[in-house]
Amino acid sequence: MRSNLRALPAVLFVLFAVSATGSRAVAADDDNVLKNLHTVTTIASTLPANQDVNPYGVAKVQRTVGHLTEGHILVSNFNNASNAQGTGTTIVDVAPDGTVSLFAQINASALPGPCPGGVGLTTALVALRSGWVIVGSLPTSDGTSATAQAGCLIVLDSSGNPVETFYGSLINGPWDMTSLDAGDQAWLFVTNVLNGTVAANGSVVNQGTLVRINLGVSGQNMPWIESMTVIGSGFSERTDPAALVIGPTGVGLSPNCTASDPDDCRTPWGNQGEPVLYVADALNNRIAVIPRAISRDNSDGVGTTLTSGGSLNAPLGLTVTEGGHILTVNGGDGFITEITAQGKQIAKTLLDNSGTPPGSGALFGLIFEPGRGVVFVDDATNTLNLLH
Questions:
Q1: Three-state secondary-structure class, residue 309
Q2: What's the CA dihedral at 61, 65, 69, 75 to 10 degrees?
Q3: Up-side HSE of residue 186: CA atoms within 13 Å toward CB?
Q4: Can you tell me the distance from the alpha carbon of 348 to that of 337, in angstroms, rounded to the nearest whole number?
């Protein structure tokens, strides 16, 4: 589907760099963040009153609006109390001091619009500065991939009430998501993992997609879709008894170049200040790059490989530091890996050593907070943790 993206002034890209990453400069190769982070501390349990488990998505609240408080972390749960995958309905709010409250509990029968299959909240979670929260749903009826359905994106207001859904042919198993927020406009980047996956019954299919959704945003009116564009396609995906589905997961945007100082962006894929999109391609054990993420009006296929192998072991969650380094957590073990914008793997740290093998399938959403460390969920312990 072709984008109707309107022309964007160059100055807007500079604003994006500040709001999306908090930095105007890219770190040097030897300026890694993990080298100074050695301790993992539990911030809070992510279990709500209904005992939903498997925390997946994390989103930092950027501005206080309604029941949202700046600096708090929202966490979405994928499983219900019986540990059935694709049936979690809750988003919890975690304050920096570890205080936990329920932000939303979503009733599938009371959704304000279609969401094929119901509610099973995924890693796809963003909180816009205007107070809207958007979360992905990849639902099942019994916790198995055989009953997985397309789901939707659910838009909630700042009080945690669902107000609309985004659904349709391009949204098919929304698995993870990142965003770029310009106040009255936002760009969502959503991975989809159910294109032909269920029918393949465990075999790998190369139909995973990365969809950009251009949103109009208002503090008073619900966000509206201006256009949707497939900017990545052909990613490997398959169902899995333990993970429900494996496919393209973590997504993150690079810090932006500036016209006044092009050295601020040293990725080979920069385009006049426009960020590139990084994608964790779990089944191919690599991090991919999709350039021109904002202006692209066609698919870049599976992108260009930034790095593969090495310390990567089925990368899942992904975030980008203020200096432009990529942090990704492994689905095959409990490690986090740090990668430069040029694709050099420069550090790794163990985050979870539980289970057999240690840390397998435990790590999903994460956020880098300058001066604090890496905030991440651990679904083996149902906790929000801090590497510091």
A1: coil
A2: -50
A3: 26
A4: 4
Q: Amino acid identity of 308? A: S
Residues 6+ apart with CB under 8 A from 226: 4, 5, 185, 214, 215, 216
Lowest mean pLDDT among 198-202, 229-233, 269-273, 384-388: 269-273
Q: The whole model's pTM is what? A: 0.91
For residue range 72-87, what is the model confidence (pLDDT) as tens digits?
999 999 999 999 999 9
**Residue 232 DSSP SS3:** strand
Cα(381)–Cα(354) distance, integer angstroms: 9
Q: Determine contact, residues 363/334, Cβ cutoff 8 Å.
A: yes
Q: What share of residues in the chain are helix, strand, coil (percent, to 5)?
A: 10, 45, 50
Strand partners, 308: 286
DSSP assignment, residue 245?
E
Q: What tokens were used for 62?
A: 């950027």
Cα distances from 138 to residues 121, 151, 301, in angstroms, run: 6, 5, 23
d(CA 312, CA 354): 18
At 126, list the tokens.
């963003």
Asked if pLDDT for residue 268 goes beyond 70, the answer is no
Coil vs helix vs strand at 339: strand
Identity of the residue numbered 94: V
Q: Where are the alpha helices (DSSP H) in the chain?
A: 10-21, 197-200
SS3 108: helix
pLDDT band at 357 (very low <50, low <70, confident <90, very high): confident
> Which tens digit of pLDDT belongs to each residue from 224-258?
999 999 999 999 999 998 889 999 999 999 986 44
Name residues whose C-beta falls within 8 Å of residue 134's C-beta, 6 or more positions apart in sequence: 124, 125, 126, 128, 153, 154, 155, 156, 166, 177, 179, 188, 223
- The CA–CA distances, whole Å, from 205 to 7, 42, 161, 357 equal 36, 38, 36, 26
Q: In angstroms, rounded to a whole number, what is the distance separating the alpha carbons of residues 174 and 239?
A: 14
Task: Give the pair of three-digit tokens for residue 293.
Answer: 């993420």
Inter-residue contact 317 to 364 (CB < 8 Å): yes
**Amino acid identity, position 184:** D
pLDDT in tens, 312-332: 999 999 999 988 999 999 999
